[in-house]
Amino acid sequence: MHVLIIDSEQESLDHTKDLLRKNPLVSEVEAVNNTDQAILKIINNDPDVIFLNYPSKGSTEKELIEYVNTKLPETTLVLVSETKEYAAFAIQNGIFKYLLEPIEKEELGKVIKTIHQAKQNHFQSRINQMIESSREEARFSLQTAKGYLMINPDELIFCKAYGAYTKLYLTGNRKELSNQFLLRFEEILNQFNFLRVSRSHLINQRFIRKVYRNNNTIVLFADGKEYEIKAGKIHIRKLSKFDTE
Predict the structure, then answer these.
(1) Are residues 160 and 61 part of one domain?
(2) Is the pLDDT of residue 131 over 90?
(3) For the chain, what percent of residues have pLDDT higher than 70?
(4) SS3 string of the chain?
(5) Given this model, what pLDDT does residue 52 score?
(6) Cα–Cα distance, 47 to 71 (Å, whole number)
(7) Which end of the chain is more exposed for a tag (fewer CB within 10 A), N or C?
(8) Domain range spanning residue 96?
């Protein structure tokens, strides 16, 4: 996830930045000293999470909160302060995540995990709606670092897990990186003849060209290019209907 920190105290800012960069669910961390600088960052980058140290410096605090609440429904604001006395302010302004300084690694991790899970659930809901509304042409929405991409499952050759991310290899020599776990794609694509062949690979069976039993390898072919995928023995047996060597 892309995170923005708004904090005028350099020591606490560096502390929060360091904790976030060590979190595997966080892909990018930006920091500014006041709300005036933050407004431009938010408009240009649409961060997933904003940590607002309160009271904050700058003259656009109210505008910033209103902009996020009205224009960026998928961005989560987290209020950070030294005491709990600003909790009422947070709730009144539609901010329901609250952290006390100094921020502890465990508490920060819980907040990031909760936000990430909520985004995944929202993404799954959008996919389910898309599947139900367009049965005649199966398409689903893929969340990438650049935004949302609509793709047909027939364009997807295979998926490869990278920790909390999944890299998608598409026809036309295209590649996309999603912040969804491979398990999510397995759940979505199971109905479209996809097969999980290892802990890190989910393949589209329509692109299988060869199955090698001697070294448990599956060869996929698309756009004149071959992709060798290592698979488990049980999956190799399941694919025995294909030509093997």
Answers:
(1) no
(2) no
(3) 89
(4) CEEEEECCCHHHHHHHHHHHHCCCCCCEEEEECCHHHHHHHHHHHCCCEEEEECCCCCCCHHHHHHHHHHHCCCCEEEEEECCHHHHHHHHHCCCCEEEECCCCHHHHHHHHHHHHHHHHHHHHHHHHHHHHHCCCCCCEEEEECCEEEEECHHHEEEEEEECCEEEEEECCCEEEEECCCHHHHHHHHHHHCEEECCCCEEEEHHHEEEEECCCCEEEEEECCEEEEEECCHHHHHHCCCCCEC
(5) 95
(6) 12
(7) C
(8) 2-119
Q: Are residues 36 and 80 in the same domain?
A: yes
Q: Is the pLDDT of residue 80 over 70?
A: yes
- Do 104 and 148 sit in the same domain of this protein? no
Phi-psi region of 173 (alpha: psi -120 to 50; beta: other; left: phi over 0): left
pLDDT value for 244: 43
Mean pLDDT, rounded, for 79-91: 91
> Does residue 101 share a domain with residue 58?
yes
pTM exceeds 0.85, yes or no: no
| Same domain, residue pair 20 and 103 | yes
Within a domain: residue 10? Answer: yes
Mean pLDDT, residues 55-81 taken together? 92
Domain count, the chain: 2
